[in-house]
Amino acid sequence: MPFQPLPGDQPSCTVQCPACGHRWLVYQQQLGLLGPCPVCGAARPRSMGSVVPGSGRQVSFGSFRSLLDEPRLLTLIGQALRLSPLDGERFVDAQGREVPLEDIHYALQGNAEWQGTLYNLHMSRAH
Ligand SMILES: [Zn+2]
Question: Is the pLDDT confidence value at 100 over 90?
Answer without folding.
Answer: no
